[in-house]
Amino acid sequence: MEVKNICCIGAGYVGGPTMAVIAEKCTNIKITVVDLNEARIAAWNDEDVNNIPIYEPRLNEIVGNRRNKNLFFSTNVDKAIDEADLIFISVNTPTKTYGTGKGMAADLKHIELCARQIAKVAKTDKIIVEKSTLPVRTAEALKSILDNTGNGAKFQILSNPEFLAEGTAVEDLLSPDRVLIGGDSSQEGQKAIEALVNVYANWVPRERILTTNVWSSELSKLVANAFLAQRVSSINAISELCEKTEANVNEVAKAIGMDSRIGPKFLKASVGFGGSCFQKDILNLVYISKAFGLNEVADYWEQVIIMNDHQKRRFSKNIVQTLYNTVSGKKITFLGWAFKKDTNDTRESAAIYVADDLINEQAYIALYDPKVSQKQVLTDLDYLDTRKSDENEKHITSYNNPYEACKNAHAIAILTEWDEFKEYDWEKIYDSMLKPAFVFDGRNILNGEVLKNIGFVYQSIGS
Ligand code: NAD
Ligand code: UDX
């Protein structure tokens, strides 16, 4: 079977970029990305392609190339489902905030709604692809809903988790380390796998397209994120030991990373990992393990999260301690709010938690991030529900200009590793600050020696 018409439910950080790249590479396939969020779809359709809702390097260029040719963004979910022969489900699967599994399990309500809607609308056979990250064995539930509520159309369910990282989404999609496709071993299942393989084979070398059973594919996504996050927590744990022993975590990371069995990537000590995936997916892995009675397995992985929470907290504690045990009434400047560079995504960003701690200590935070709006910053803080919204608003102010943000500050904290921070005129910044002027580099991106020579008290992670 040849795929000619694709629908993707969910126009978010995964659905948008992934479909844009498929559209770019498969110009003979019509792709419609649908979402219930009208504002988001309107932004994807904005005449000025620089206003699309997600910032990713090169994404605007690709969307500009393919939009309204073979790439469409729409709120008409039913129509897109009806017309498609293959449907990606790419909706959000956040950690549950209520009921059984609250704070641990993945919330699958959006997934179930999609399945019910597909079953209701579909008149012809379709391939359903799990693109969202899901607990292992979700395909079983999807199949049950589709088979029991449909109108006789047949469905094949595939798992095709997405491994892109934000900030490098386009690059990752254009040349992925691998594409993983899990499907049923039946003849129909194998045909469905082949159909999706053929889509990716338009640009991904065959040997990088890996096919497995559905359960291995679903589980591999959770495991990949758990392993990646585990590396960050491991190096962050060592960063604290380095601070006590005059070892330097950058040197340790280099020394261990040169062992080809360990490898050099994902060993950057930081203020803690953020993003919408790592914490959610590990919590889910912990929850699933506990559900099977595997308490040691659950405890092992939970420690990755415990270490990350500790890393964020000790960063804010250190700021308070270093500023003579009080930040009450002091202006502290944050450079960066996004959870990593080159994205406007702030979900679970370490900056949110550090800001919350410092506002508890009555600090006033001035903020500059090249891609994040004041509105988003307030939404993030309000979501924690630590204090009233007007209190948050009083304690945090976003600036459009980093030099203005730093003026009269007691301290600067680097929360995101945006490249432009390295290029600033740090002498000018020093001159405009209160003295002693402190820099807390939560990303180890600045040259400490240069800053110390200017006069800053400079502290980084793990040295
Ligand atoms: P997102 O919140 O940016 O986008 C999800 C979109 O789905 C939202 O716009 C929402 O309005 C829409 N939606 C929800 N229910 C819907 C419904 N019933 N009908 C139509 N639209 C609906 O989320 P995201 O970051 O794109 O993540 C999507 C999935 O991909 C998650 O499972 C996530 O774990 C996984 N994932 C994310 C990343 C990442 O880097 N963000 C990477 C790999 C995998
Ligand atoms: C992650 C996975 O990498 C990706 O494969 C998956 O599809 C989604 O989740 P993402 O969260 O977008 O991607 O970014 P990633 O580059 O993994 O960074 C996650 C967090 O870890 C960021 O806050 C980053 O700053 C932090 N990090 C990463 C470190 O602190 N040190 C490192 O060495 C690497």
From TrEMBL:
Keywords: NAD, Oxidoreductase. Pfam families: UDPG_MGDP_dh, UDPG_MGDP_dh_C, UDPG_MGDP_dh_N. Its EC number is 1.1.1.22. Pathway: Nucleotide-sugar biosynthesis; UDP-alpha-D-glucuronate biosynthesis; UDP-alpha-D-glucuronate from UDP-alpha-D-glucose: step 1/1. Residues 333-448 form the UDP-glucose/GDP-mannose dehydrogenase C-terminal domain. It catalyses: UDP-alpha-D-glucose + 2 NAD(+) + H2O = UDP-alpha-D-glucuronate + 2 NADH + 3 H(+). It is an enzyme of class 1 (oxidoreductase). InterPro entries: 6-PGluconate_DH-like_C_sf, NAD(P)-bd_dom_sf, UDP-Glc/GDP-Man, UDP-Glc/GDP-Man_DH_C, UDP-Glc/GDP-Man_DH_C_sf, UDP-Glc/GDP-Man_DH_dimer, UDP-Glc/GDP-Man_DH_N, UDPglc_DH_euk. It comes from the Bacteria. Belongs to the UDP-glucose/GDP-mannose dehydrogenase family. This is UDP-glucose 6-dehydrogenase. It comes from Flavobacterium aureirubrum.
